[in-house]
Write a structure and sequence with these properties.
The protein has 249 residues and is an alpha/beta fold. The protein has helices at residues 37-53, 69-78, 94-105, 127-135, 188-194, 235-246, and strands spanning 2-6, 9-11, 18-19, 26-27, 33-35, 57-64, 82-87, 112-116, 139-143, 145-149, 152-159, 162-169, 172-176, 199-202.
Length: 249
């Protein structure tokens, strides 16, 4: 069983972000970076699939600057066998990232490629689908369960009002939802061993960007709240304000 997990380093969700002087990007000088949380579920599931199969390899792949080696080492500490870093200091749009990943994946013949369902910084949920389209492989996002048996895969995902079950042959590309599993915490021994595991560095094949960021702005400040009364006596006034001022009813 050959498994690849495509992951992204993102700013820690607890980090207070500020904009760079160009007004088009985030100032990363004080940012703490982490593995995108949904990608951690993808990594964990890749490890579980390998463990259930009793054999195989799991490779973590990311596109980013040299500093992204730290997040790759974290994945190696969880139990991933090796890593690949497509070194790029410039920010990439989704199609450029997808092209870079496809250039790596096209030569690997993985049975399963896992993504997180979306990155928590851009919230785009595009790269997994783009990679699948470029490779000509089926793609299922938001998966809540996956079983692999004899080159066949059975996938479940939650939909409105129920759960959908999808079956088909390998190879396949999937996007992990947080209900899929509970990611493991690396033990000290695993963290130390991760330092000896290989990380291959390659040059990304990005191609031309599909769009340009022209400005990044903060959300408009929310207006201050107002107390219109207490209890049932306030209902009429609240309705009036919602109708005449807020114009939402």
């Amino acid at each position: 069983m050959k498994i690849a997990v495509c992951m992204k380093r993102v700013p820690d969700t607890a980090t207070r972000l500020t904009f760079a002087a160009d007004g088009k990007s985030v100032d990363t000088s004080e940012v703490q970076w982490v593995i995108s949380p949904y990608d951690e579920y993808a990594i964990e599931e890749g490890l579980r699939i390998r463990e259930r199969a009793g054999e195989g390899t799991v490779t973590a792949i990311t596109v980013g600057p040299e500093g992204a080696s730290k997040e790759l080492r974290q994945a190696l500490g969880m139990g991933v066998d090796d890593g690949i870093l497509a070194v790029c200091d410039e920010p990439l749009d989704p199609i450029q990232t997808a092209r870079s990943l496809v250039a790596i994946l096209a030569d690997r013949a993985d049975d399963i490629v896992l993504f997180g369902k979306q990155a928590v910084d851009s919230q785009g949920a595009q790269v997994g689908a783009l990679v699948a389209r470029l490779l000509g492989r089926p793609f299922v996002n938001d998966i809540a369960a996956i079983e692999v048996s004899e080159q066949q895969v059975r996938i479940e995902r939650d939909i409105e009002g129920g759960r959908e079950t999808i079956e088909g042959p390998l190879p396949i590309i999937v996007g992990a939802e947080k209900s899929l599993n509970e990611p493991r915490y690396p033990k000290l021994k695993d963290i130390m061993q991760a330092k000896k595991k290989p990380i291959e560095k390659v040059t990304p094949q990005t191609g031309e960007p599909s769009f340009e960021t022209v400005a990044v702005t903060t959300p408009a400040p929310r207006p201050e709240g107002r107390i219109v009364g207490e209890g049932p006596e306030a209902v009429d006034e609240l309705i009036r304000l919602l109708r005449e001022e807020a114009k939402v009813i």
